């Protein structure tokens, strides 16, 4: 009851006055899936290279070029929406997340102003599965219809059919995540493109770590300068 890709060969058979055709259809669905996965992977890796170049050019902060990086990732990955969530610790002692940046393809609804995503508690919202999985450094992906009800409710409100979330680690700590939504139809996430999207998350994590280190160095230099200028003897 499902459609498959096939490779068809037909051979004419003639014997005296009789004629027929021998037709063979070979199922090549697996091969086509592998080719599509590699095509997506190459496109995403080009976007990753673009991101790395942008982050290296910007001397102040990764945030200066994040919007154009998300747009390139979204277009090359062929998704409806790309966004970044940053984790933080709430007053209740639990881990929360807030949406920081977003790119949306034409026809998809923007969620950057969604109040429920500006302060999202993993535990209280029933998303402890996401906290555990992403916190271990693993990607979380699939069709929304297969997710638990508590997760489906939130994702359906955003018109998401399929989703992939990749954790972002900065200096060994889980900083947040980068998400990819497909809103038009269900999408199969191939292993090859998941590996490429992990490279995108790693590149972003390295850029955030670099900015953090440079800011810490500047603050240290400013403190030292202030101490030196205030000293009785220079």
Strand content: 25-35%
Helix run count: 5
Low-confidence spans: none
First-to-last CA distance: 84 Å
Strand order of the largest sheet: 5-4-3-8-7-6
Q: pLDDT average, as an integer?
A: 88
What spatial form do the alpha-carbon principal axes imply?
elongated
What is the gyration radius calculated from CA atoms? 24 Å
Q: What composes the largest sheet?
A: 6 strands, antiparallel
Helix percent band: 40-55%
Short description:
Helices cover 42% and strands 27% of the residues. By secondary structure, the chain is an alpha+beta fold. A hairpin with a 2-residue loop joins β7 (162-170) and β8 (173-182).
Overall description:
- The protein is of the alpha+beta class and 234 residues long.
- It is built from five helices and eight strands; from the N terminus they run ββααβββαβαββα.
- The strands form two sheets. The protein has a six-stranded antiparallel β-sheet with strand order 5-4-3-8-7-6, sandwiched between helices. Strands 1-2 form a two-stranded antiparallel sheet.
- A hairpin with a 2-residue loop joins strand 1 and strand 2.
- Helix 1 packs antiparallel against helix 2 and helix 1 packs parallel to helix 5.
- It is elongated.
Summary tags:
234 residues, 8 strands, two-stranded antiparallel ribbon, six-stranded antiparallel sheet
What order do the helices and strands come in, and which of them pair?
Blueprint: E1 6-15, E2 18-27, H1 29-57, H2 66-77, E3 81-89, E4 95-104, E5 120-121, H3 128-135, E6 140-143, H4 149-157, E7 162-170, E8 173-182, H5 191-230
Antiparallel strand pairs: 1-2, 3-4, 3-8, 4-5, 6-7, 7-8
Helix pairs in contact: 1-2, 1-5
């Amino acid at each position: 009851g499902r459609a498959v890709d096939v490779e068809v060969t037909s051979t004419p058979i003639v014997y005296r006055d009789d004629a027929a055709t021998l037709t063979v259809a070979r199922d090549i669905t697996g091969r086509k899936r592998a080719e599509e996965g590699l095509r997506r992977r190459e496109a995403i890796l080009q976007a990753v290279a673009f991101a790395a170049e942008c982050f290296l050019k910007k001397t102040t902060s990764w945030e200066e070029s994040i919007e154009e990086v998300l747009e390139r990732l979204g277009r090359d990955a062929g998704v409806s929406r790309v966004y970044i969530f940053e984790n933080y610790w709430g007053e209740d002692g639990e881990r929360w997340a807030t949406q920081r940046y977003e790119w949306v393809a034409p026809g998809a609804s923007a969620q950057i102003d969604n109040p429920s995503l500006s302060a999202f508690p993993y535990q209280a919202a029933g998303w402890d599965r996401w906290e555990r999985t992403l916190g271990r450094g693993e990607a979380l992906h699939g069709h929304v219809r297969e997710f638990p009800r508590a997760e489906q409710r939130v994702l359906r409100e955003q018109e998401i059919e399929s989703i992939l979330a990749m954790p972002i680690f900065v200096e060994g700590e889980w900083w947040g995540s980068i998400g990819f939504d497909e809103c038009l139809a269900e999408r199969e996430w191939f292993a090859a493109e998941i590996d490429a999207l992990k490279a995108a998350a790693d590149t972003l994590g390295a850029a955030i770590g670099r900015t953090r280190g440079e800011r810490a160095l500047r603050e240290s230099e400013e403190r030292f300068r202030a101490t030196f200028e205030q000293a009785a003897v220079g």
